[in-house]
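Reopening closed ticket. The problem is back. First fold of the pair:
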Amino acid sequence: MSLNQSGSSSGRGQPPANRWRWLLLLIIISVALGATWVIRNKSEPAAPASRKFDGKSRPMPVLAAAAVTRDVKVYLDALGSVASRNTITVKTRVNGQLLKLYFREGQSVKAGEMLAEVDPRPYEVALAQMNAQLSKDKATLDNARMDLERFNTLLAQDSIARQQVDTQAALVRQNVAIIAVDQAQVDNAKLQLSYCRTLAPISGVVGLRQVDPGNQIQTGDVNGIVTITQLQPITVLFPIPEDNLPGVIARIKAGGPVPVEAYDRQKTAKLADGHLLTMDNQIDPTTGTIRLRAEFKNENGSLFPNQFVNMRLLLDVIKDAVLIPASAVQRSSSGSNVYVLKPDETVELRTIKTGVVEGDNIVITHGLAAGESVIIDGIDKLRDGAKVRVVVPGIPDKVNHRGKPGEGKRHQRSEA
């Protein structure tokens, strides 16, 4: 009996365990089905959304610009340094005490203008001595000539020997030579006296004075009295890569002046217009560049020695070049591309070849004709064949959308 009771109790415990297993299995299956349903509901709306904003189903608003033709100037850019054509260190040519300076620092002077004066009195005394010696020797020469005339008269009367006459003639020639030496010494004394007045050798602007009046100055002073720098005209030295040298040589051989422009460091303000003067006779092997020299009249004084300026050399002029805004060009591994606006308000992705850049525009050498319109804004959302709608900057989008008069009225009625 005890055996029957135990068996009956074990029979009653099995059905609840089976029920829990089945219940757990049903829960797992329900969760899996629910997750599958959620995933499907999330993925299915994505397709209609993409179709809704597809470029073919709804025009994309873009900005467009037409390709234009005009002459384009090709410039060669370089960084240059302003250099004076002539810089002179003014030095005294005689030793002595500096009495006075006749210039102000930073003053413009002309060639031949007096700059400084050295005490002339020692040189005036030396000139007086030379003049006195010259007068003495002239008197000696006059006496020798008179004696020679008397000797010639006596020789004609056969009252004197020929040798005595020849000796007197030689003495006259000797005195003539002495006079020549004296005259040279007088001229030298006059020259030294004139050197007491220091004159400007060139026209230009004087710098800071290197000595004050009252000092003893020497001809061997390294610093001199002052420095004069010629500013009009003035030159600019600038290097260009050796690869650009053939183009510059061809431009020079074409004849006529080669225009050159000088700009400030920011390359925003033009300082002066000039022309190419010359070029160096060899290429620098360390930098692979060659130096060119341009000349400017510098009438307004905008260029100053050792000033750094941006140079633009007019290398060529491209006639009737096709230009578009540079923002329309896309770069890729296959080359340069643009989206061209077609008459049916779709775009065509076209491969082009570009040339030089002029400001915000770029020259198109192949692949685009004048008058064709290209997309300049909204490019990142486009693809080949996409439908677009060209808008005008500064006008509300709803106004831009009214392509035809009838359409505009329909929009107005719908808005009302």
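Second fold of the pair, where the issue appears:
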Amino acid sequence: MSDVTPPVSSGEEFSLNDDRRVKTLSPGALVAKRFFRNKIAVVGLVMLIVMFVFSFIGGLISPYRQDEQFYHYENQQKEFAAATINKDFRYVNAEGQDFSSLLQAKFILAEGKGADSFEVKDVTYSITKEGEDLYTIYDGSTLLAYASKDIVNPSGDMSFDVKLAALKAYVAGESSFSAEGDDYSIDDAGQITSSAGDAGYITRLVVSSAQSGVKISKEFAEAVSVMIDSGNDEMDFTDADGEEQHYKVSYDASAMVYSIKQGKETYVYDSYAKPSSKHWLGTDTNGMDMLTRLMYGGRVSLIIGFIVVIIETVLGVILGGISGYFGGWIDNLIMRIVDIFYCIPSLPLIIILGAAMDGMRLDPQIRMLYLMLILGFLGWPGIARMVRGQILSLREQEFMTAAEATGVSVRRRIFRHLIPNVIPQLIVICTMSLGSTIITEATLSFLGLGVKFPFASWGNIINDVNNAFVMTHYWFVWIPAGICLLVAVLGFNFVGDGLRDAFDPRMKR
């Protein structure tokens, strides 16, 4: 029988106690294996992948920009003019005269009694009735003013004398009059004409424009008068440019005013448009595509979360590593700084800084940078304390004694030997912090203290829903942003829990 062991074939099966059956895994592979055995952690990882693809790739393939606004034409009723039927006397002062409110009150009392004069402070004023509802008031032989219920609407500058002569001719039923060397004609409708053309018109219907720079023509006033007299509430009128406009009139009984509104085709934001083939999630109050805003908003929220956590980690690792390694007065100093930061009321401070940035009217991009720096600067103490605690236990172990004995520099001992041993805990705490940072940014943006228009974030998208009507009628504006926040934060929390159990299997229940 031969003592030579036959060669082992590739298909040979090994016994259970054969060392060749043992498959050695690296620490990283072991962590990955434990992580992917955790179903909840895998679900969280899938959720994060979906959110990253949605935010970063979706924004690239979207046909719209995050600040692109959409418009449509809409027939809007805009306030054009107001009309009142004059039932009271109106007073027009003669050149250089002042017919005060006291004199007007005394005139009303005298006119009501049918008197031809009234007295004020031992001065007697005479009243002359020129016609129906037209009076002139004199101080001796000096004409002070006239009082009339009819109003002269001049098309240009018209002097007091011409207005008074026109009213006298109108109430007397005359067809012409002369004033200041010019001849005028007047018809039964009150239209005043001179050799130069239309000079004005007389009416009791006072139509005043609601828009500056717009003059009300006699024809329009007459059309309004006919509409009111006939009891209609709508009319069509062709203006001087030949364009036909549609008007609606409504009566305000409390103010005794007719409100005249003009219907105009107006180019307006396509606000709160419902989901359609063009806009899958509709539009917001500014007429922007909601799906595109969600994509870019996710990009902003995730970037802010990562940068804030990086700032926190860098500060926390450096200060925590120095504190834990050196101990003594350095440790006491850094820990007292940590205690001070824990005592800072973060939210009131951020509100104050947000108000200050509003007052300075900072560029939204600069403001976003400041927001990341502020959140990162306020969030490092927790990481510093965790790193310090880990290093306090690691620095007394044998490998650190060996590193010190071989003359390795302090910087190298901390950052090449101690910090790498803290990385598993850092990965877990940073992953868990990402979710809370995104929630913090969303809260600040919702309060108007974070990311500003035109940049989108999930927080300021929800901020647009600031009244109950929008919240109940336009679900597509805020529910998708809330779902994105929920999915992203849950994903980070699930992954953080999975990493914690993978790095330290003893924590798994």
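Update: turned out to be a display glitch only; the data is intact. The chain has a mean pLDDT of 83. Residues 27-70+280-507 form a domain with the MetI-like fold fold (CATH 1.10.3720.10). Please close again.
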